[in-house]
């Protein structure tokens, strides 16, 4: 065999989910830019009164070295951007990959990319529609993929492929004019931004990547909507297109994987199989919606998945770890015509293997998925959390203070966090 890389209650949950999205469709819309001819612009910044002259941010300087909290000049937004007073920032493996040098990124940089906070300023020349949608004082959540709203992909609604985001932010650590908004207080040295550089007291975010957070949702737990839940939703809704009655396996049940379980349940999946190597994570997976659990350190996950599904395999398998072994397990776990969805980032240069003949003959689909589509999906996720269909309280297991940021990432690296952790910056 030639290997290439990668090996319940349907009615209630689905009807509640469909009802939630029905309400959403009547009260929210995609935040597409409107032509200048029908929109007015503010020549001066809006808000920003009484801001301090500097702030603190957590800086990554070089691989495998601790973050340091540094003083920065107060960042200022430009047209179409908002300055947010950060309230909370999630602890994600993507940041850890950067901090360990496993994923190349410009340094020094401020990490942190799933945030909640309060809008305190709009950049000069921002359009009135944006200012009305996100007035100063608004409680907001930010998505880690921050769409420009005007590139060829964004114009088609594919915010997750935004050309500006990948060309400027992921390639160079800047926003979309090619410049960072972060400068050290004393030296003025520029510092790169991983997404918005959210592990800081203030951050600048393109307005297209931000949605209003209702008063009913807490700042701390809601931070994970911008990455963990956002990534899971993109995988389930767009890549896998999960339907009621589908069988789903999730390999790796950390922050993103456990969110996949909740989304699969919301979409009405029948058999939901959680695969991990830690029994405590698998026990928690049952709370998130898993109907079956498999400890892959103790038994062959592929054999077990086929046993659970009557020898067929699952309709959808999701790989949330980014490892060649689990990549292969994912592709080999799906039924004929099934979808293997890859959402786990790997060390740069990692390759996955797939059985080419099985891929061709049995119509196996291998799909990559990086995240959701901010303008369309983030309001839906907020609504799912607001109605309780997605349980934020179950998803967040630990909190840390801003000064404990290094401990948070150390605990993540050592596998001590079950679910998602959040750093409070209040």
UniProtKB/TrEMBL annotation:
<feature type="domain" description="Enoyl reductase (ER)">
    <location>
        <begin position="62"/>
        <end position="423"/>
    </location>
</feature>
<dbReference type="InterPro" id="IPR013149">
    <property type="entry name" value="ADH-like_C"/>
</dbReference>
<protein>
    <recommendedName>
        <fullName>Enoyl reductase (ER) domain-containing protein</fullName>
    </recommendedName>
</protein>
<dbReference type="InterPro" id="IPR036291">
    <property type="entry name" value="NAD(P)-bd_dom_sf"/>
</dbReference>
<keyword id="KW-0520">NAD</keyword>
<keyword id="KW-0560">Oxidoreductase</keyword>
<comment type="similarity">
    <text>Belongs to the zinc-containing alcohol dehydrogenase family.</text>
</comment>
<dbReference type="InterPro" id="IPR013154">
    <property type="entry name" value="ADH-like_N"/>
</dbReference>
<dbReference type="InterPro" id="IPR002328">
    <property type="entry name" value="ADH_Zn_CS"/>
</dbReference>
<dbReference type="Pfam" id="PF00107">
    <property type="entry name" value="ADH_zinc_N"/>
</dbReference>
<keyword id="KW-0479">Metal-binding</keyword>
<dbReference type="InterPro" id="IPR011032">
    <property type="entry name" value="GroES-like_sf"/>
</dbReference>
<dbReference type="Pfam" id="PF08240">
    <property type="entry name" value="ADH_N"/>
</dbReference>
<keyword id="KW-0862">Zinc</keyword>
<dbReference type="GO" id="GO:0016491">
    <property type="term" value="F:oxidoreductase activity"/>
</dbReference>
<dbReference type="InterPro" id="IPR020843">
    <property type="entry name" value="ER"/>
</dbReference>
<dbReference type="GO" id="GO:0008270">
    <property type="term" value="F:zinc ion binding"/>
</dbReference>
């Amino acid at each position: 065999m030639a290997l290439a890389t990668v090996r319940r209650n349907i009615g209630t949950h689905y009807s509640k989910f469909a009802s939630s999205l029905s309400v959403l469709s009547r009260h929210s819309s995609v935040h597409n830019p409107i032509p200048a001819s029908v929109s007015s612009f503010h020549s001066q910044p809006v808000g920003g009164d009484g801001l301090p002259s500097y702030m603190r941010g957590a800086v990554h300087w070089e691989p495998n070295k601790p973050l340091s909290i540094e003083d920065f000049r107060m960042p200022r937004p430009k047209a179409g951007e908002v300055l947010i007073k950060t309230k909370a920032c999630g602890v994600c493996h993507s940041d850890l990959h950067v901090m360990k040098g496993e994923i190349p990124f410009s340094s020094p940089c401020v990490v942190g990319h799933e945030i909640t906070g309060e809008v305190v300023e709009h950049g000069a020349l921002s359009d009135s529609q944006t200012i009305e949608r996100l007035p100063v004082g608004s409680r907001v959540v930010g998505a880690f993929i921050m769409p420009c709203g005007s590139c060829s992909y964004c114009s088609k609604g594919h915010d997750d492929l935004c050309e500006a985001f990948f060309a400027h932010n992921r390639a160079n650590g800047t926003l979309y004019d090619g410049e960072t908004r972060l400068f050290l207080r004393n030296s003025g040295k520029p510092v790169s931004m991983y997404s918005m550089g959210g592990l800081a007291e203030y951050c600048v975010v393109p307005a297209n990547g931000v949605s209003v957070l209702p008063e009913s949702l807490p700042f701390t737990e809601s931070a994970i909507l911008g990455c963990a839940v956002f990534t899971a939703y993109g995988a389930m809704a767009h890549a896998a297109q999960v339907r009621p009655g589908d069988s789903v396996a999730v390999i790796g049940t950390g922050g993103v994987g456990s969110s996949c379980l909740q989304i699969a349940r919301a979409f009405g999946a029948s058999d939901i199989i959680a695969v991990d190597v830690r029994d405590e994570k698998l026990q928690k997976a049952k709370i998130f919606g898993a109907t079956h659990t498999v400890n892959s350190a103790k038994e062959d996950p592929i054999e077990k998945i086929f046993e659970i599904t009557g020898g067929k395999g699952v309709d959808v398998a999701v790989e949330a770890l980014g490892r060649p072994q689990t990549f292969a397990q994912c592709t080999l776990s799906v039924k004929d015509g099934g979808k293997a969805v890859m959402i786990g980032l790997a060390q740069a240069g990692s390759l996955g293997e797939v059985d080419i003949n099985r891929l061709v003959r049995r119509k196996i689909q291998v799909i990559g998925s990086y995240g959701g589509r901010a303008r369309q999906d983030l309001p839906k996720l907020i609504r799912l959390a607001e109605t309780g269909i997605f349980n934020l309280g179950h998803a967040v297991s630990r909190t840390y203070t801003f000064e404990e940021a290094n401990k948070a990432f150390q605990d993540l690296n050592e596998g001590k966090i079950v679910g998602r952790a959040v750093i409070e910056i209040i």
